[in-house]
Amino acid sequence: MTQLITITEPRTTTFSLNRDQRRVRKREPGPRPPWLTVRYSRNRTFSAVEDTKTGLGLVTVCEEAMCPNIDECWSAGTATFMLMGDICTRRCGFCAVQKGMPRPLDGDEPRKIAEAIATMGVQHAVITSVNRDELPDGGAAHIAATVDAIRELVPATTIELLIPDHLGQRDAIEHILDSGPDIVAHNMETVARLYRRVRPQAQYQRSLDVLNWIGQRDGIISKTGLMMGLGETNSEVFDVMQDLRAVDCEIFTVGQYLSPTTRHLPVERWVTPDTFDEIAELGRQLGFSHVESGPLVRSSYMAHRAIEH
Fold first, then answer.
1. Does any domain span residue 39?
2. For labelling alongside 93, which of 57, 257, 264, 266 has CA 20 to 30 A away?
3. How far, in Å, CA of 78 to CA of 117, rounded?
4. Would 14 be classed as within a structural domain?
5. Which of 285, 278, 163 is nearest to 228 (CA)?
6. CB of 183 within 8 A of CB of 221?
7. For the domain that residue 51 is a member of, what is the CATH number?
8. Would you write out the chain's pLDDT as a tens digit for each of its 309 residues?
């Protein structure tokens, strides 16, 4: 088995930052390396995606989670829609999504999502959601209804869901799986040792259980994502990857954690592109059917490539 390589010192680069960004950078482990530079470029397609989203009153995780790839994805005519509002009942230390008590569900949202996908001509739709722990099923029925609406309006579109753990309620997870999405993801986010600090309302084993239930369903591909730079070691990442293969998780994504604001957990280290390449190779050796591993990789980034494989 190949050994994970060590982290090397990144080179210096410069950025134009606002006040809050400067405060975030002061907490970072040295200058931000050049491989994290994002070149912003927006075209007419970007504007069309924005107009569709705004016109239907929809929320995207691209905006709410401050994704660095938003310009690239929207300019390519794709976006990851976020169901059930823009307020999450969890308080994860890494996430930029607003926390608090959410508003009531919009019963028309499934139709709006389907309409947006049809308007944009999306061939592989990626849908995620906030946590809704105040709902008896965590919003499982709403998620399933969205899959049904997409299937009715654009039946040729493949559907990928990124779901919460629904407090470990298997019947809620099964309800979602019964709707027949093509890929269902649930992100591990970090290694077991860091769960209490990074995901205080989640449990490592519970997330593995969710992925196990997904993996047991014929015809549905299971997927998960991990962040690096929160204080984990390379060997701990490898341990997670082994745990994932033990529950038949098929698709694995991993990228560099970037702290959204000074109110969020700081970055502990910069992970080099070579390390991400090494992790990708380890993933292939472990038997994942598809691995996306790189500094700017996020769980929904280039999601269509996995279905093409």
1. yes
2. 57
3. 9
4. no
5. 278
6. yes
7. 3.20.20.70
8. 334 433 333 333 333 455 555 566 667 888 888 888 777 666 566 666 666 666 666 666 565 556 666 666 655 556 678 899 888 999 888 787 788 988 999 999 999 989 888 887 888 888 989 999 999 999 999 999 999 999 999 999 999 999 999 999 999 999 999 999 999 999 999 999 999 999 999 999 999 999 999 999 999 999 999 999 999 999 999 999 999 999 999 999 999 998 888 888 999 999 999 999 999 999 999 999 999 999 988 877 666 666 665
Q: Which two tokens stand for residue 264?
A: 């969020």
Structure tokens at 253: 């994504």
> What interhelical angle do 170-178 and 140-153 show, nearest 10?
10
**6 located within any domain:** no
Residue given tokens 């970072």 in the structure block = 28
Question: What is this structure's pTM?
Answer: 0.84
Total number of domains constituting the chain: 1
Q: Which domain holds residue 33?
A: 21-308
